[in-house]
Every structure is written in C-alpha cells, then in structure tokens.
Amino acid sequence: MRSTLLRLREVQERLDISRTEIYRKMRAGAFPQAIRLGPNRIAFLESEIEVWVSERARSSTEPNATPGGTFASGNSLGQPDQPPSRRSRGGQP
After folding, report:
1. 14-17, long-range: CB within 8 Å, 24+ apart, which pairs?
2. Scanning 36, 47, 68, 89, which has its CA 20 to 30 A from the CA of 57?
3. How many domains does the chain have?
4. Could you report the per-residue pLDDT of 31-54, keeping only the tens digit for each?
5. What's the domain range around 38?
C-alpha cells in the first residue's frame, strides 16, 4: 500500500488554515499527528488528512452539531442558546 505524504505547506493550502492553527489542533489532539522527516521538516499522511476533512464535513451536517463536534445544549426550554444582544450606545438603537 502506498502512502502519500503532504508537507505542511500543502496541508495549509488544502485546508486554508494557518500553520499556528494546525499546531494548536495537533496539541489538542484534534488533528492528525505529523511525521517528522528531518530536524526542520514534517509531513502528514494524505489519507489521515482526508479522513479528518470527512469527519468535519459529516459533523457539520448533523443536527444540533457545533463546530467542535459536540451538541448544543440549548436553554431550559429546549430552545437553542441565543447570542448576547448588543447594547445601544448613547440612546441610539
């Protein structure tokens, strides 16, 4: 079985996310772990990146799913939480 490696820059371009965000997600265990190719070079298995993308797409289509993959709690009436309202400034609505 042949495994294709994607360098960090390729993953950034495919997913349109920053290097910092990739490292942050890796530390949190929410992104595939990199393979160290050398002292200053890492890569990712393309198949693992594809699975990660598929999981994000699937969780985004589930009802009541939040971006983190958890379910929205709603309020005590079973309705979704509402964002805080904006306060008016100087008497203007």
Report:
1. 14/49, 15/49, 15/53
2. 36
3. 1
4. 999 999 999 999 999 999 999 999
5. 5-61
